[in-house]
Specification:
Elements lengths: L1 H10 L12 H9 L5 H5 L5 E4 L3 E2 L9 E17 L2 E10 L2 E8 L4 H4 L5 E7 L1 E3 L2 E5 L2 E4 L12 E4 L8 H15 L8 H6 L5 H9 L4 H31 L12 H9 L6 H15 L5 E6 L5 H14 L3 E5 L3 H17 L4 E4 L5 H12 L5 E4 L13 E6 L7 H8 L6 E6 L5 H8 L3 E5 L9 E7 L3 H13 L3 E5 L5 H10 L17 H5 L2 H18 L7 E4 L5 H13 L4 E4 L12 E6 L7 H8 L9 E7 L4 H12 L3 H11 L25 H17 L6 H14 L8
Parallel strand pairs: 2-3, 5-8, 11-16, 11-17, 12-14, 12-15, 13-14, 15-16, 18-23, 19-21, 19-22, 20-21, 22-23
Antiparallel strand pairs: 1-10, 3-4, 3-6, 4-5, 6-9, 7-8
Helix pairs in contact: 5-7, 7-8, 8-24, 8-25, 9-11, 10-11, 11-12, 15-24, 22-23
This protein binds adenosine-5'-diphosphate and magnesium ion (MG).
Length: about 725
């Protein structure tokens, strides 16, 4: 038995190709999903489940509600209602009747499903043209031979690709689980007993192949706790390591450059900004390592506060790094902040993924020689050729976009650098403490121009003219306008539904908690670009014919994007039609009107980020959220945007609306070791894990006791980027 346990434990770190059914081609497809090892495979968690115990029949399925129907494919057809639109239509029958299923932009379903197959579909039921219908439901072929893999009446739906269907992933995962069955459980028994947690083997099996939804939830509970415990252990150990040994820099905070930076600002700081600046400078002056987070809604002016910290680093004869999540944002910091820094005698430079090789070499050399004080950039800063001589400060802007491992990598470039995190994500204090180790915090609650009103209005599509009137009035005053087009494919789907003559099916498409396969898998990106491109064309020749309209989208090259932003910034272009590439950080104070098309396709947090792009100057701003949706839930969400301008309030509202549909939570967090955790929802577990990690390290700081060694290894694997996993 002991031998088996060891074998299973070792198997976790073996290549996925050793698992039955994983051919070289499938291994390549799995790699696309981030799966390289057996461990990756068994932690490739389902993104949803189809609960067959809640199955309705065609007759009992209620119109307007979500349900699962199991039946046999009577007929499957590929249709092309329009030149660039393909849809698959399936007639599904059970003993009570017929359900028509329409799947947009998943033509490959034709290869995967054939008449006579047994399938389960899960989605919202509508009624049109005499039939009950589902548009873009989850579709799963449930083969006869699948037997043992499906333990009960719950079918897991794993993230899949076009090359590797969810059904195949399911089979492969089942085989992977066999390899590691009985593997050693790294979680100490005491903790497992205290919280009544399943063993790891059992939890892995149950989260992939639960017999009931309750069992899946229990499995998730165990695995989430484990992820969080390792995270806490990692943060605490990292913090201790960073504090030990090297002496942190005691920064000079009232030096020449700090003074000059203050003098270079074109405005006076608000009281809150001053307080935040003082908090930060005080922590930098102290002989301990700073770990500070500056929280403030979009547009509250965090950047200039960070500027003071950069100037202080330079005054102290040290260097600093400023990491931003996107090229646009990094460039903007390099221009805006960079020129203020320059005026203060601080030498800064920009490094991004698109910096030409020769220039890059020049910059990294100058930085390594100490001829540059502040290096501003994107992920490029993490690369090994960025070698500061004496790094005393690392700032991470929009830190929620980065993983724990990336943060660690940045900080590792210095001996004991101070760290400053800027974030617009409203996290409660206790969570911030748990998630970022021992942290000091400053909040900026008000935007500098609180006197400047920003009004948000929700308009039904047929009244979008009012939005354009508002925009034209602003243009006439010499101000500028953003027009934002919907997120990847979702909006297009609604239009497609209409184009296909299924008005009314529209609202059933694209439930955000129930994403259709197409959204993830198809090349919807192009449709997104098309939507923005078309909108720009139309506006250019009609509404805004007398102005210069520019287009910005993620598919454009860096240089083209930069040029467009530059023309908009200088006012050469007055209207910017964009996809969500402008979501983060773009700063053009003269832009006062934003029109968001198909606003119901965006999340509240995203809409709030977006509208943060206007109202940044001294002039009143207007935001128009245009939507063709008639769904009550969508309209209630949008109405919240009208009622409050406060990001924290919106976040709370957003949470209260989320249905419990996805028990797996979201997985947007950058940290590779967190696959299941939902930072907002798992607050209580985060706090428990925080306490437990502290207690463990109190008795065994290096996790060297026999009972803890396996756990120490897991921590490194999950977060420190060691071993084959991660990256
Ligand atoms: P965020 O907190 O979202 O990063 P920014 O730092 O980009 O916000 O600042 C938003 C805008 O407000 C910028 O145009 C900035 O120059 C301006 N700003 C910042 N502080 C002040 C201030 N005290 N008075 C006037 N404008 C300010
Ligand atoms: Mg910012």
């Amino acid at each position: 038995m002991a031998i088996d346990r060891e074998k299973a434990t070792l198997a976790l770190d073996g290549p996925v190709s050793r698992v039955r059914l994983v051919s070289p081609a499938r291994a390549r497809a799995l790699e696309k999903l981030g799966v390289r090892t057996v461990r990756d495979l068994v932690t490739h968690f389902p993104r949803s489940y189809i609960d067959l115990s809640q199955v309705e029949t065609c007759a009992t399925a209620r119109i307007g509600e979500m349900c699962t129907i199991r039946g046999t494919v009577h007929e499957i057809k590929l249709k092309k209602p329009r030149y660039n639109l393909k849809l698959v239509e399936i007639a599904l029958v059970d003993e009570t009747g017929i359900l028509m299923v329409t799947a947009f932009r998943q033509p490959w379903l034709m290869d995967q499903i054939k008449a006579g197959d047994g399938v389960a579909v899960s989605g919202k039921v509508t009624f049109d043209y005499g039939y009950k219908r589902m548009t873009n439901p989850f579709i799963e072929v449930i083969g006869e031979g699948e037997g043992p893999a499906l333990a009960g009446s719950v079918v897991p739906v794993h993230p899949a690709t076009e090359k590797l269907t969810a059904a195949w992933v399911r089979r492969i995962v089942a085989n992977g689980l066999e390899e590691v069955e009985g593997a050693f459980d790294p979680l100490p028994l005491g903790l497992r007993l205290r919280y009544r947690l399943m063993s790891r083997s059992a939890a892995l099996r149950a989260i992939h192949f639960p017999t009931t939804m309750a069992e899946a939830a229990e499995a998730r509970r165990r695995l989430v706790y484990e992820e969080l415990l390792y995270l806490e252990l990692f943060l605490m150990q990292e913090g201790a390591e960073r504090a030990a040994g090297a002496a942190p820099c005691e920064h000079v905070t009232d030096g020449e450059r700090v003074g000059a930076f203050a003098g270079a600002l074109p405005f006076a700081l608000t009281g809150e900004q001053e307080r935040a600046r003082d908090d930060i400078l005080e922590a930098m002056a102290a002989p301990a390592v700073m770990n500070h987070m500056l929280l403030g809604d979009v547009g509250t002016g965090k950047t200039v506060v960070a500027g003071f910290a950069l100037a202080a680093a330079a005054d102290s004869g040290c260097q600093a790094l400023l990491l931003a999540p996107t090229e646009v944002l990094a460039r903007q910091h390099a221009e805006g902040l960079g020129s203020l820094l320059e005026a203060a005698g601080v030498r800064s430079a920009l490094l991004t993924g698109s910096t030409a090789a020769a220039e890059r070499a020049q910059i990294t050399e100058a930085f390594a020689a100490g001829d540059i004080d502040v290096l501003i950039g994107t992920h490029a800063l993490l690369s090994d050729d960025v070698r500061p001589v004496r790094l005393s400060l690392a700032i991470i802007d929009e830190q929620q976009r980065f993983g724990v491992d990336q943060r660690a990598k940045l900080l590792a470039k210095g001996e004991a650098p101070d760290a400053l995190y800027l974030t617009a994500t409203p996290i409660p204090r206790t969570l911030a403490l748990a998630l970022y180790g021992n942290l000091t915090l400053s909040y900026i609650k008000h935007r500098p121009h609180d006197a400047v009103p920003r009004i948000t209005r929700v308009l039904p599509k047929e009244r979008q003219g009012e939005a354009f009137d508002g925009a034209r009035a602003a243009l006439a005053r010499g101000e500028q306008v953003y027009v934002v087009c919907p997120l990847v494919g979702k909006g297009a789907e609604e239009r497609d539904a209409k184009a296909a003559g299924r008005a009314g099916a529209a609202d059933a498409a694209g439930e955000e908690y129930h994403p259709a396969v197409a959204i993830e898998d198809a090349d919807d990106f192009d449709d997104d670009v098309t939507a923005a491109t078309k909108e720009a064309e139309i506006l250019r020749s009609t509404t805004f014919a007398d102005y210069t309209v520019e287009l910005l989208h993620g598919g454009m090259g860096t240089e083209a994007k930069r040029a467009v932003m530059e023309r908009f910034r200088t006012g050469e272009a007055q209207v910017l039609v964009a996809t969500t590439v402008i979501e983060v950080g773009v700063d053009v104070p003269n832009a006062t009107v934003m029109i968001v098309q198909d606003a119901d396709r965006f999340g509240l947090a995203q809409l709030h980020q977006l509208r943060g792009r206007v109202g940044r100057g001294t002039k009143a701003a207007e935001v128009y959220l245009v939507s063709a949706s008639h769904r009550e839930e969508s309209l209630a969400r949008l109405a919240a945007m009208e009622t409050t301008d406060d990001g924290f309030e919106l976040a709370a509202f957003d949470l209260s609306l989320r249905r419990e549909g996805d028990i797996l939570g979201n997985r947007q967090h950058g940290a590779s070791g967190l696959k299941l955790v939902n930072i907002m929802r798992d607050g209580a577990v985060i706090e428990a894990a925080h306490g437990d990690a502290q207690a463990l390290l109190d008795v065994d700081p290096l996790l060297q006791e026999p009972d803890h060694r396996a756990m120490a290894r897991e921590v490194r694997l999950a977060f420190a980027g060691e071993g084959i996993v991660g990256g």
